[in-house]
Structures are given as structure tokens and as C-alpha cells.
Amino acid sequence: xxxxxxxxxxxxxxxxxxxxxxxxxxxxxxxxxxxxxxxxxxxxxxxxxxxxxxxxxxxxxxxxxxxxxxxxxxxxxxxxxxxxxxxxxxxxxxxxxxxxxxxxxxxxxxxxxxxxxxxxxxxxxxxxxxxxxxxxxxxxxxxxxxxxxxxxxxxxxxxxxxxxxxxxxxxxxxxxxxxxxxxxxxxxxxxxxxxxxxxxxxxxxxxxxxxxxxxxxxxxxxxxxxxxxxxxxxxxxxxxxxxxxxxxxxxxxxxxxxxxxxxxxxxxxxxxxxxxxxxxxxxxxxxxxxxxxxxxxxxxxxxxxxxxxxxxxxxxxxxxxxxxxxxxxxxxxxxxxxxxxxxxxx
Amino acid sequence: xxxxxxxxxxxxxxxxxxxxxxxxxxxxxxxxxxxxxxxxxxxxxxxxxxxxxxxxxxxxxxxxxxxxxxxxxxxxxxxxxxxxxxxxxxxx
Lengths: 346, 92
What we know:
The complex is a heterodimer of chains A (346) and B (92).
Chain A: E1 4-8, H1 14-23, E2 34-40, E3 43-51, E4 54-60, H2 69-83, E5 90-93, H3 98-103, E6 107-112, E7 116-120, H4 125-136, E8 145-150, H5 157-169, E9 172-177, H6 187-197, E10 204-208, H7 220-223, H8 228-249, E11 253-257, H9 263-275, E12 282-286, E13 290-291, E14 294-295, H10 298-306, H11 310-316, H12 319-326, H13 328-339
Parallel strand pairs in A: 4-5, 8-9, 8-11, 9-10, 11-12
Antiparallel strand pairs in A: 1-2, 2-3, 3-4, 5-7, 6-7, 13-14
Helix pairs in contact in A: 8-9, 10-11, 10-13
Chain B: E1 7-9, E2 17-22, E3 28-34, H1 37-54, E4 60-66, H2 71-86
Parallel strand pairs in B: 3-4
Antiparallel strand pairs in B: 1-2, 2-4
Helix pairs in contact in B: 1-2
């Protein structure tokens, strides 16, 4: 038997990986932070990579199926992830490939038909998360039960208005704050500001999205620019995950905010309007609150801070967020924004 | 032995078992995925509980992916994972 070598790709070998992926109808994600291949002699016969806590872009040459190459590759990538301290791993794949990954210890979280399946390597991972959400919810929530998901980077008067409108229309409102720490305002602070800015609404229950909604695993193009088709596919899958959460919490309506300057938010809303109603969750798009004819968004707050326009920033946020912006932590974020490039959500 | 951080051992090949072990606040939790679950699931879990007891591990979360490993393989892989997970420094 020929000696097979599994190793990280070397500079210049990406083109070979691209060719292998293209033959399988896949493309290399632009944000892989590690890529590996199995080489037979000098030929690449299987390839895949990592991005954050996900495994991505896995492909085995058509003529080399059934030799267990996928399991060797996945084992190698899991080992790389463990060395980085990532034990809870995610991947998504085509519906037709899901059973193979099930054999490798990846369990289904949600699917968008046969198009895409989202998997994790923890058997109880998602069910544990659903249980946590239920534990955080007071018993006998009043109907109708609604939900809002926000990154709140940072929490503005626009977010507050959206939550107030949604809260008034619901018996109970679940408010999910994105946990992924890829935004300029730290996740912990974003959550604290959401809680402070919604404390006057007794029917609002705050949750963290964990790795399951708008995370780097489900929806990387929310954080990193990518083409529309990729963003839409990921948004549909994110919607499928949300549908399962909605089912567990009895949510029947999801409120969405418009984000006129963000293309990816528009795609996201479009995908949710397709995916959620068939799953029994109505979508309600609420218009943005405006300040002097301009919609209030977190992007505009970040731009104001970048420009050093504190007066404008303060008019766009509730007092709790304003106090934070003036705190030591807030000043640090403002300093980072001043040196940042693009601060408007793509 | 105390599980100080996550660790893994084993492969996804046939006749092997891949074991991932993580700290757990309270007690032993074993989540097993096995190609022979129907016939040997309980026996695999019993072997793992016995091995952990022998190693003096009272709290751990274990995720195991089995492809028909023999008892001795299960013990060896789990023992290796426990030793790696109880070392002082995390191997980076």
C-alpha cells in the first residue's frame, strides 16, 4: 500500500486544494485559519480546513472514496483543534454527506432541506443549550411569545425602540444577544448594555446565542464579508437553527429590524422570511427609529465614535450605553474604533 | 486523578475509539456514539466507568466515538486521554 501523508498545506498548495474542492462543487472559504490535505505521492487526494471552532471545506477525490480518507482527515483536524483548546466543534455540509459525518461523531443540529446540514461533535450540545434557555425563562410564559436576536454593537435607541415595540406586542419576549466575540464591543459588555437598556420591560427574557445563532460557525459572513450566495445559504441555516429554538420556547413571532446600510442584514432578513413562516414562526419587520430623518443603527454610533463626534454618539444611545461609552472600557473601544478601517456593517 | 483541561486520544478508524475528555463540575457524563451501540453500547459505557473508577476520576465529561473497539482498546484510549487531561500544563 502507498504511504499516505496527512499534513498542513504549504504555501503554494492552495491552488491544488481549490481544484479538488471545485471538482466536488465546493469553494474554499476565504477565512480558513488552517488547511490540511492528504497526499498520495505528490497528489492531493483529500483536503479540509478549520476556521475558529469549525471544520470546513472538506472534500475527498471522487476516485478515492471508500478508503477512509475522510475519517483520517477529520481526525487530523480534530487534533489540531484540540491543541488550540477547541473541543466543541461544528461543521456544515450538504445533506447527502451528513450520514458520513454522523459516523465520525457529528450530530445534527438543524438542516435547510438537503442543501445544508449543521452539525456539532457534542451529542448533547444543542439539547443542553435548549435546556439552558428553558431554565432562564420564567415558568408559564404568557402568549404570544416573541423573539428578537441582536448583536447590539453597541445597544442604541434603535435597538431599544425595536425591543419596546416587540415587547408591547408580546406576552413574553425572548431577547437573544450574539455571544460571538468578533465585534468591536466585547460580548460581555454588549449583553450588559442590552440588559440595562431593557430593564424597564418586565416581559423581556435575555439569553446568549452561544455557538448556535449568528456565530462564526453558523453565519461567518455576518462577521466577514463574503459573496451574497454564501451569506444567503448561511442565513437560511441560521434560520433553521432558530426554528428549533423557537419550537423549544414556544416562540411564534420573530421581530426583525431593518438595517438600511447593511447588505448582509438585508440578506439575513430575506432568508428568515423564507425559512421561518413554514416552521410556524411569523416574521415581523419593524422600521428603524430615526434621528432627524436618518435611521439609528449601531453602525452610525461606531462611525460617530470613529469620527470623535461624541455629541452625536450620545444622541443615538440610551443613557445606560452613554454612561458605558464614557467609562474606561468604553474609551478603550472608542480608541480602537478611531484607528479601525471600515466600521459600518457590510 | 483530576481532569484539569480537555484532551483526546484514539482515532476514527475501524476497531478504534476516539475519546474526548473535558472537566465536568459534577460527576461522570458519558456521551457515546457507536456503530455497535445496539449490541455493545451498555458494555462500552460499563468499561469506561470501570476504567475511570480505577484511575480515580470522579468528575469528567466524555464524548466517545466508537467504531467497534475491543475492551482493551477502550481502556487504553480512555487511560491515555485521562493522563493527558490531568497533566499540569496544557500541551500547545
